[in-house]
Amino acid sequence: MKAVIVTDQNAGTAGMTLGERPEPHASENDVVVRVRASGFTPGELTWPGTWTDRAGRDRTPSIPGHELAGVVDALGYGTTGLTVGQRVFGLADWTRDGTLAELVAVEARNLAPLPADIDFTTAASLPISGLTAWQGLFVHGRLQAGQSVLVHGAAGGVGSVVSQLAREHGAHVIGTGRTADRDAALSFGADEFLDLEVDHLDAAGQVDLVFDVIGGDIGARSAALVRPGGALVTIAAPPEVKPVDAAAVFFVVEADRAQLTELAARVRDGRLRTRIGAVHPLEEAVQAFNPASRPVGKTIITIR
């Protein structure tokens, strides 16, 4: 099968090629999915799981990409809940070959049925952004109606979904970003916008929840904005500065079929949309990892 392959961690994207790999086998409780669309995260070539398996052993050549939408091609022994020919979407394991390929083996529990009225491109843009937003807000942040949320990167792939889910839940949403991000952030549900190129971060005032995707100085200064009893939730790095009398949570997103199903329901009825940027065929995936300019929205790779 055709797949994007990486073999040398030191080479980074310069060592990425499109080549041939053996078709995957469905182990116990696995399914093999024929991939129709895949999403990736630009920084994943720095992740340990791209290069080693769960036991820490080298697993190169490896295939990057973890978000997928496609059709079940084969079932492993003991697999239940899905059938051959079924449309699915979800999140592949971090330490196994990924989704920038014609076929991928995935644990069945990491996938959810994909309704027929959601196209593969939209579905592939949803797992990481959607699950990260859901888990940060409701699992780790314990967001309640009537609370206030400061969403960093509110026009980005994760932040735009955070804003929509938070507003639907009855929260007041303050989005942050660059000057050029204002209109997009407001269109995705932010009630207010804080321009980090112009405004002082303190202008946000005290909030119940900070959702941080940036880290660094912005993440550190955000700790002082969290009310007692609130939470600073981040996916950037473990927070070095923690809020007073409030939670500080760093987390890595996990696959969850029930949450994927909730997200799909919101896409179907128009309550949720993702910000899709460039769409490329698999043959252009290597170039897509090295864009000439900063991407706007989620880059999706389609596979015939």
| Rg over C-alpha atoms, rounded to the nearest angstrom | 19 Å
The overall pLDDT average reads 96
Low-confidence stretches: none
Biggest β-sheet description? 7 strands, mixed
Shape verdict:
globular
Structural class: alpha/beta
Please give the share of residues in helix.
10-25%
What are the secondary-structure elements, in order, as H or E?
EEEEEEEHHEHEHEEHEEHEHE
Please tally the β strands and state the result: 15
By DSSP (H or I, 4+ residues per run), the number of helices equals 7
**Percentage of residues in strands:** 25-35%
How would you explain this protein's 3D organization?
With 304 residues, this protein is an alpha/beta fold. Helices cover 20% and strands 28% of the residues. It is built from 7 helices and 15 strands. The strands form 3 sheets. Strands 3, 4, 5, 6, 7, 14 and 15 form a 7-stranded mixed sheet that branches. It has a 6-stranded parallel sheet with strand order 10-9-8-11-12-13, sandwiched between helices. α3 (157-168) links the parallel β8 (148-151) and β9. α2 packs across α3. The longest helix is centred in the middle third of the chain and has 14 residues, at 127-140.
